[in-house]
Amino acid sequence: MAKRTRSTKKRVVKVESIGRAYIKASFNNIIISLTNEQGQVISWASSGKMGFRGSKKNTPYAAQMAAEDCSKTAYDAGLRKVKVYVKGPGSGRESAIRTIHSSGIEVMEIVDVTPLPHNGCRPPKRRRV
After folding, report:
1. Which residues contact 28 (CB under 8 A, 6 or more apart)?
2. How many CA atoms lie within 13 A of 115 on its CB side?
3. CATH code assigned to 22-112
4. Half-sphere exposure of 63 toward its Cβ, with a 13 Å CA cutoff?
5. pLDDT per 10-residue tile (average), the chain, 129 residues
6. Domain boundaries, the chain
7. pTM of the predicted model, to two decimals?
């Protein structure tokens, strides 16, 4: 019995001139997603996708390369202005924003959406030695 091949067509994302840029900068990686106003991803990139490995993934240079790749694709699709939402304590936050701006996409607003604990987790029990 032969397997049936299903043809899946690629989902077409509607690109307006105004969108959003989400930058997640953790201690291990940097992920940049450019979306339209509805949140549908136009283009994305990460420092791991750019070929960086290990501790080099969390450098400002890796964030710059990822932002350049991501914003180039989105600019060609028609994105011109973004609101930037930054999350996380990583080191490539500012360089990613600068690169998005220098690639021709105007940065209208920068919002820090890093989650902050109100009272945090319960601390571990006291060590008995």
Report:
1. 57, 58
2. 5
3. 3.30.420.80
4. 24
5. 73 83 94 93 93 91 94 92 94 92 94 90 89
6. 22-112
7. 0.82
